[in-house]
TrEMBL record:
This is Altronate hydrolase. SMART domains: SAF. InterPro entries: SAF (IPR013974), SAF_UxaA/GarD (IPR044144), UxaA_altronate/galactarate_dh (IPR052172). Signal peptide: none annotated. It comes from Salinadaptatus halalkaliphilus.
Amino acid sequence: MKGVVIDDKALLMAENDTVATALDDLEAGTELPVDTDARSDDSATGETGGASSRVVVLEEAIEFGHKIALADIEAGEKIYKYGEVIGVATADVPAGAWVHTHNCASTRGRVDREADDATALGAGGDPR
């Protein structure tokens, strides 16, 4: 996936992202149709999930370039953009809410944080 424009209003960079980026100043109540690819298996029927659609309604106005939660994100949960973890929710964030420093602690570019794995900076690994 190279990025998907959602209804000319937002940009989703990777399919596992939990946020999208506003492509314009968006008003509260704006609807974003989000396609999901449910890959769960139904053991009773042997069928796999298929693509489905849902609508995320903006909880508040969100300015151009800012992040929009595409699903409910609980405090402490990782936030994904570009297919990578960019931060951790510091509060519960409902779908359609603005994601920024008031509810997300960045994990990018932080050399003072604890490493999650042995390849992270400070454990002798490559920091890239």
